[in-house]
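Predict structure. Chain length: 195.
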Amino acid sequence: MKMVKIMMAGAMAMLLAACSTGPRVYTDADPAADFSRYRTFAFYESAGKSDEKYATLHGQRIEDAVSAALEARGYRVDINTPDILINYHLKTEEKTRTSPPVYYGGYYGYRSGMYVGWPGYVEPGYVDNYTEGTISVDMVDRRTDQMIWEGTAVGRIDSEFRNNPDQGVRKAVGAIFGKYPYVAGSSVPVVPATQ
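Prediction complete.
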């Protein structure tokens, strides 16, 4: 019996860990794109830049992580005539999540006069202020100038990310490319390697 309880506790811990890890990832692809034509990539010169004229540290981290993910799938860098051009965007936003107080009403004994009633209680609400980060990666066919695939990771920026941004960016970009189903020169979807 004790072993069963230990196994159930372990299973619950793994389930909770699986639910709480990693960003939410969304992808979309052009159904008309022929992914067998794509073997090389490069970044847009203005990738990740809005008003800045220079690459940011996070921008360089994203480029490194995207390059590693694509090279692991057989793509290679070609800055002169790439098949795919890559752009990315990084956005942070301050968010607030609130929950109002919840009142759990009491009751009086079902045998009136024989039992003391339970008065109920109020579960206090909460206000949760946090920073949400979004990384989007766009893949564009250089010849047609049409977007062929995009992936977006959305997640909470916590102290772990702030203390180790290299690992945080690699994890987010890895989650995005965990949903990218192709390898270089093939239009047959495959299960990509986990990053």
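Summary: The first helix runs from residue 2 to 20.
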